[in-house]
Structure formats: C-alpha cells, structure tokens
Amino acid sequence: MTRRANRWNGGVIAAVAFASLSAPSAQAATPTLPAIFPAPTTMTLGDGAIALGRPVTLIVAPGTEPATAALVRTLLAKAGIREVATASRLPATPDRPTIVIGPDSAAIVREALARSGATAEDRTEGYTLTTRSTGAGLITLAGHDADGLFHAVQTLRQLLARPTIPALTIRDHPAMPIRGTIEGFYGKPWSMTDRTRHLDFLGEMKANTYVYSPKDDPFARDKWREAYPAATLSELGTLVARARANHVDFVYAISPGPSICFSNPADEQALLRKFAALRGIGVHSFYVALDDIEYQKWNCDADKAAFGPSGAEAAGVAQSKLLNAVQADLLRQDPASRPLIMVPTEYYDAKESPYKAALRAHLNPRIVVQWTGTDVVPPAISIPDAKAATKAFGRKTLLWDNYPVNDYASSAGRLLLAPYAKREAGLSSELTGILSNPMNQEAPSRIAVTGVLAFGWNDKGYDADRTWHYAAHDLAGNDARATAALLELFDTQHLAPTFGSQPWQEQAPKLKALLDHVREALANGDEAERRAAIAALGHKADALADAPDTIRAGVADPGFAEQAAPWLDAMQLWGRALQQTAAGLDAADRGNPAATRYFADAKRIAAQAAAVQTIPGATRFGGPVKIADGVLDTFVADAPNLIAVTAKP
Length: 649
Known about the structure:
The chain is α/β, with parallel strands linked by helices. The chain is built from 20 helices and 16 strands. The strands form two sheets. The protein has an eight-stranded mixed beta sheet with strand order 1-2-8-6-7-5-3-4, sandwiched between helices. An eight-stranded parallel barrel has the order 9-10-11-12-13-14-15-16, surrounded by four helices.
C-alpha cells in the first residue's frame, strides 16, 4: 500500500514518455474475467484483450477534472507505459490503443461508448468502463459525475496490474449512498500521517465519507466550546483538501453532550461558531454526536425549566430542538450542504422507547440518524433488524458498525483482522449507508475496513473471504510470499469479541482445524497418519515462525509492521514454541527421550510469547498480546500429554 504514499499530489502532471498498451499477439493467453474490488454491479467479459507493448493515445474529454486526468497518467506510468500521445477526437482508424476519459455527457465519450457497444451508467457516483480489443484497442472511462469518473479510474488502476486488459464492459454504481469510516474510538487518536494514508485508501476503495470524531480530541468533546489552536485548524484544513482530492467527504463531528445546556442560546451559538470555523477550512458536512452521555439528568437547571423533569423523552425533545436549529443554520450558510448527521444517545437496538418516539416526532426528517445495530458490537445484522431501526427512528438509518474497533475491554491485546461478515446481503435497501469504526491502529484496520467498504458498494455481490484475500494481497504489494504470511497472521487474529459472552467470529479457524487433525491422528493410533499429521504440524509451525520476518520485509506500507509490531513479535515466539512442540511429538512418537527437552523448551518460549505487551498508550486497554488464544496456547500446553514420552527398547 505504499503506492498510496507516492500516488499523486493532485496537480496536473505534464505528459511524459510512457511505455504502452498494444493489441494482443496470437500467442496471448485466453482472456479471463478480472477480480475487481469492490465487486462491480455488472461486469461482462468480451472477446480478446489489450496487452502491454506499444504507445497509447489519451483523450481527455471536456469537463474532466484535471486531477483525475493527472491520476490516469500517473497510473499508466506506474504500469510501465512510457509513451503517450494526446488527441481531442477519436480517429476513424486508431493506429494505437486509445484511452478516452470524461463525463458521460461529453460528445466524444458518448461516441467512444457507442463504438464499444456500451451505454452510460445513470446513477449517482456511477460509471461505465469498457474495453474494445478490435483494431488497436479502445478503453473508455465514462463517469456519470465527477465522483463516478474518479471511481472508474480506481477500477482502471486494478486492471493495469494485469499483464493484459481483457475486452469487457463494467457498469457500476454504489448500493449505499454513504460509505466510509468514522474515527470514533476512545484512546490515542490517529496521527495526521495515519489520516492522510487512510484518506488515500478510502479513495482507492471508492468510499466517499470520513467522519472526524476521535473521542480524545479535547476540542471536539470536553473543550467543545473553545476554538481550535491555529496550528491544529491548519492541519485539519490539509486533511480536508486531501479528502477532497480523493473524492471523500470530510465530516466534522462534535460531541457536546457531556456539558451542553440545550436551552441556552449561548451554547447553541458556540456550536455554530465551531462549525463556522471548520467551514472556513473547507468543511461542508457536520455531525453532532450525543452518544455515551447521561440523559437521565440535565446539565443545567434551565433545561428543566424548558423541557420539564429529566428523562429519556425530555432528552429526545431537547436534542431535537438543538439539532433542528443546527440543521437550519447549515442550510442558511450553504444551501447545497449535506444533511446534518447525529448519533443518538440510544444508538443501539431498535426497541421502542420514549426517547426514540421523541426523535421520531420532533427531529427534522432531513437529519441522518446513526445506529450501531442490535448491540454496541452486534454479532450479526439482518434486513429485519434494519427495518426495525427504520421504524424506531422514523427514517432509514446510517449504520455505525463497531468493527474492527478495539477500544473495549474484551478486545484488549487483539488486532481484529477477520473478514467482514454476518451482515445480510440486501441491507442497502434499508440503510442510507455504512461507516466502519476502525481500530486505534490505522494500517491494520484496513483489512476489515476493506470488507466494510466493499459491502457498502455492492452488498449483494460481496464475498467476505475473497475480499479478505484481496486486502492481504494489496497490503503485500502483490507479493505472493508476503500475502501468504499476512494470511497466517490474520488467522491468529480472527476472533471478534462482542459485548456478550460469545464472539461473533471464531478464533484461528484454519490453525484450529490443523491442530484438531493432529489430535485426532494421535488418538486414532495409525502410525502413517500420525507421522503425516506431525509433519504437517511442523510445516505450520515453520510458517508461523517465519511469517513475521516476511511481513516486515514484504508489506507495502511500513506503517502496518510498525503498528502491528508486538503481534509480530509474539507470533514469532508462538511459532517457535509450536516448532518445539512438533519436534517433541515427533521425538516421542519415535521413542526418543529428547521429547521431554523439546516440550520444556516449548513451554519456556510460550511463556515468553504470552508476556509480550501491546504498545503502551496505543489503545484504550493495553496488556498482553493475544495470538490465537484458546487454540495455540491450549495445544502447546496439552501436547506433552497427547503421546507417551518413553524410550523404545
């Protein structure tokens, strides 16, 4: 993913020498349907392919954003395309592959689509990408709007990673209007570098929303009435510009709930002043968070006089009054502003309550309401669950999915790296969108967030495991060894806890299957099966022990290795403990008394592994790092008792 760090700077890049695309040779491989993530709405394979080899012509239609055209040139250069010519019209008989990019309203784009037998996508953020292999080859990127054209270029980025681009037609648009992340966790906020990289990642994954809402930003919560220092405001302005370059909406969230007096005009004005300051650096989307506050008592006596005795219903009325005033001011300041977003105090479950009834009755219907599902960290979300939320809040909700966030006690010591799963296909019909609440560790968060974004784009075409593998492949910079090593790590961090007693993702399923097989082979008494199982265990132990070094050397984004460092250290030690365990089982099976020493070494190394600590201050709850806990540690402890350690006569 370091490709993102050097991607582009948003400026127009001058035409330089490129290597290029050419028509396929007679020996070209049979074209195959490419894997694109997020999965497109429709993708149809044609005949033939366009292979790398000759110069290309690039036609940029009127209405194309200069930065989008510059990004295409950058991607072509990274694909090794060394020569490019420019033109303003399609030649009758192109003598070289031709790329046409632009809005689908442009005449030359419509002509290119017609030549390819394709039609424009007419949905918001939609695009058509079609490649025609006849003649010299024609590639057309037609965006329904500026966002759609940017998304089309992100699809081209993935196609350019292949040695040939097959003839195909993609018509694509997002299933959910809002897709992205909310930096809404407790504990150490992301650095500005983290946020910059994350915004680039969101752009590549066709996301369109980033909510700035770190709970530990004092000027957004405890000191919400106070102005940001000039330096901080300048940094936020830089992020806003980076978001815009990635076609991501930067949403500023404020959390006044712990101290606000809802009936006090001065507090309302303080909130509007804060939003006005953010508007001055280019923010046009705003959010008021009223989660994790006490609503059974007022913060001021004036609210009792204005709304009556404290309680859930009165809180709903008071919050609605404030939010309606904010929404009205946003429209006065900017008639084109996006709707205000709020997260309610009752932000999970969809049970009827006086609070929800008050929001239904009093909250401006334009305001978007967030909802975390059936629980704070829900094990699953179904269409009936979302329908119940629509009924409870009086509008379709914006899902705040608390995965892969790890700021709660039962997630201590974990990276949450399982696939994004157990969200029902078809939820797009009952949600306005989906935002993932990621971990304090930004780079590791991208594994699960890739799934969230792919689900939001095309929930009906989403495949959890394939998207998970893509995330590993992308992080590995397309390196096969690094990808395999990452998947080994991901399996040891597969458990996903909830606020209940049972996790919603099982722990280390692939490793557990192998260890269970070893136990069964030892129990069955067949010598050949036993020897084969122990050998397989040794290979797995080697893979676990070697994976951390491969990851450190092979990941495209060094931030991942840095933020996951304690887990890599612990994984390497657990791998070595399993190596000694496998050696002990093999020795015991052969009647070698050295088995006792191997098992003792395994126990010693396992103790070292279990003592590895998380990075101090990195997460809200630190402590010992957990690696396939309940699976790997249990097997290492049990192994000496699975086979008799005696010398054969």
